[in-house]
Specification:
There is one protein chain. The longest helix has 21 residues, at about 75-95. By secondary structure, the protein is α/β, with parallel strands linked by helices. The termini are far apart. The protein is built from 11 helices and 13 strands. A hairpin with a 2-residue loop joins β4 (about 335-340) and β5 (about 345). It has 3 domains: about 1-120, no CATH class; about 145-160 and about 205-360 and about 385-510, 4-Layer Sandwich (Purple Acid Phosphatase, chain A, domain 2); about 160-200, no CATH class. One of its GO terms (biological process) is sphingomyelin catabolic process.
Length: about 500
Amino acid sequence: MLSRLFLLALALTVKICAAPNPPQTHFRGESVTTAKGSCGACISALEVGKRSSWVSPNIFIRELIMACQRSGQTTPDVCEGLFKEQGPVLAEVIKHMDVTHFDGYLFCASVLGACDYPAIRPFHLEFAKPKPANATLTRPPSGRNFTVVHLSDWHFDPEYTPGSEAACDKPLCCRSDSRSSSTADPPPTNITRPANPWGDYACDAPLSLHESLLSFLANNLTTLPSFAILTGDIPPHNIWQTLPISATHRTEQIAYNLLRRYFGPPDESLLGVPLYPTIGNHEVAPANLYPPHGMENPKLPGGDASWLYNSLAKSWKPWLGGRAANQVMRNGGSYAVKVADKLRLVSLNTNFCYVNNWWLFKDTNDTVGFTPKIPHRSCLVNYPTSITKQDPNNILAWLIHQLQLAEDAGDRVWIIGHHPPGVPDCFHEYSARFSKIVERYAPHVIAGNFMGHTHKDEFEIFYQDGIQDADHAISVAYIAPSVTPYRWTNPGFRYLCFQLVVWISTIVYRCR
């Protein structure tokens, strides 16, 4: 049993502790097949994990910790902290997964890459009205230019210590306890690569880096922005020590206090313009764990995110106003706000598409016939099985409603979120549904999609009816570079200039 849990713990450790930008996997629509034997091994490991979690969640967690420590993938304290924080929800979810059928194959495909991805099931989205026949950008330019600063992946580390070890043996370095991976001597003896005052590629951002960036915005832009957006991830990558909640909350408060010095009412901030944020996977503690409505379990760490929604509503209220701040509390972190005449902004909590949000693997009411294809299993017939709810928290239905309101009013919409659709760690079914929503409301309503998470300067193109040519391109997702240098990227941000129906320029600023 321990050997199979060793496999599960090893794979989860590598997955959770991995740097951003996971390797791209094929977006496949065919049935699940064996992938060089690893798929069957993954399913077997889940079976063992399920039995163990039913016997005792504490035993399951302890076995994962021991297996992680034996693997040597990271330090013993990271293993212990990681699975003490992530383990209770993982045990609860695996306990209720149908691990030998669709649930298990989806987990092994999307989280661990051990199985081929299950086919996207047929789906139907409810639209109040059909797409107008004249849904094109025929309106003349408004004549008003908007300029916007797009920030993403802030990742402030309050424990960043200049001169500490930057080449350490943990997933995050440059802290007072960071220890060189090439020496047995404890810090501060034999520092192999001292952390710089402004940051390091193996570390998250010190306060000095954030202050420098914001000062640059206030003093060097030729035109001050009309507003700014921040597409998620305020806390650092210390995923093994996000608890107690008060520690993560304190980090976020330091970051938002600094941001409010620069963004806000003209008489209360240096830039005098609002900032519109969205939620990343690191905001919550433990990281990644956002239970959909109806799955909350306050007894578990990671079982209730209401504390975060309440905190963010308070922190964001000076920028959003009371009405949108109340939406943050009551709508799982998502909100909609009018930012200018004929321009709306919709902020989505995209953690309900994130594959490392274990809650999304827990059985719900959705069912589907599924045929597992593993050679050592003899019963290859169709099984009705339940998987992740297709629209957790009804977030996509809410998005459709907001877009319909905008269409009826003749408004344009910016959609902001943390996770871009179509990336490997966003569920394929969510991405497919999101794309269909874009097809319905672009290009006449959706002016653009603005995301982060990958830490890269990237973009995605949406096409009408999946026909990938210039004539069918209808919308773009603009993915901003990260402010943090973690890992191996120069801090940056985007500066956008546009009119309601015309893009003028996009400039990427990099720290070098």
